[in-house]
Design a protein that fits this description.
43% of the residues lie in helices and 14% in strands. It has 310 residues and is an alpha/beta fold.
């Protein structure tokens, strides 16, 4: 056990040092709902057209390294943050600090206010898509310019779930236990499922460590039923489909091991015919990591088209 932890700690230090040296960003702590500290990263000149990145389950702002460090920062104000219960953001103990949709919306509002990001495009990955839809449910879309859902259904559409023996589901069970050794195994497995092509050892270790920063009690709380703004249980956001009038894009990895991308693409096309659905062949759950040049080019074109018409 101690050898495994020492090995992980050593690689984490090396990986974190490499990323810190590369990133030219500013970090600040913002007070989210209930006084929970929210860790916020930004790069690019404030006042320029904004893009807000929302990461997925067990990840952090570091997930967006290949966007924050790209030429996008030359023309856009880029902001990413650690969700509550994740990364360097606060990890409240009470289950009700995670289960209400509008809590997540208030965290986003705090990030927007602190960074001066106005009417941003939201780029939301995996569970981040659900967080984005919590915001839409509680605050509408008037303060947004566009939405990009990456490997996420955001409860807008329904698709089949992977079987209980799927490695992704097994890893989540391991990550929710109070057994640290099981947590480490789950984190390593889940990190390996993020991409089809193996990434560097430093990145794999960093991704593993990010998963371990989300404690089991917070993970269990986030899996509880979502309470909506008027106290109702929000099992689906299909009712938001007709309310979203913004430019809407879906980016999927064609070889995503966490879900059937073709089924998800078909579900979006049926529910939202105006949506732009892109599938990256041979790419896994994280197109922005595995195919960053294409992703950044596509995102730039999407953003330029939106801001040109505003």
């Amino acid at each position: 056990m101690m050898k495994r932890l020492a090995f992980l700690a050593g690689f984490l230090f090396a990986a974190a040092s490499a990323v810190s040296a590369e990133l030219q960003i500013s970090l600040q702590m913002v007070e989210g709902h209930g006084g929970v500290p929210i860790n916020v990263a930004e790069v690019g000149e404030p006042g320029r057209p904004g893009i807000l990145f929302i990461h997925g389950n067990g990840q952090s702002y570091i997930s967006w390294t290949k966007q924050l460090n790209s030429g996008l920062a030359d023309d856009f104000h880029l902001v990413a943050y650690d969700l509550r219960g994740h990364g360097n953001s606060g990890k409240p103990w009470r289950g009700e600090d995670y289960s209400h949709a509008c809590i997540w919306a208030e965290d986003i509002e705090a990030v927007l206010e602190a960074t001066g990001l106005k009417n941003p495009i939201v780029v939301a990955w995996s569970r981040g898509g659900l967080i984005a839809m919590h915001y839409v449910r509680c605050r509408g879309t008037d303060d947004l310019s566009g939405i990009v859902m990456v490997g996420s259904r955001g409860r807008l559409v329904t698709v089949s779930l992977p079987g209980e023996d799927n490695p992704a589901r097994v890893s989540q069970v391991q990550l929710e236990t109070n057994d640290i050794e099981q947590n480490i195994l789950g984190a390593q497995t889940f990190a390996s499922l993020m991409t089809i092509e193996q990434q560097s050892a430093e990145w794999e270790t960093l991704s593993t460590a990010m998963n371990l920063l989300a404690p089991p009690y917070a993970r269990r709380a986030m899996r509880a039923p979502t309470i909506g703004p008027t106290g109702e249980v929000e099992r689906s956001y299909a009712n938001l489909v007709n309310e979203i009038k913004l430019p809407f894009r879906v980016v999927l990895g064609g070889s995503d091991p966490l879900r059937d991308s073709l089924e998800l693409a078909d579900a979006y096309r049926a529910a939202m015919p105006e949506a732009d659905v892109l599938i990256y062949p041979g790419v896994g759950h994280s197109p922005f990591i595995e195919s960053p040049e294409r992703f950044n080019t596509d995102l730039r074109a999407f953003a330029e088209q939106i801001y040109k018409t505003k």
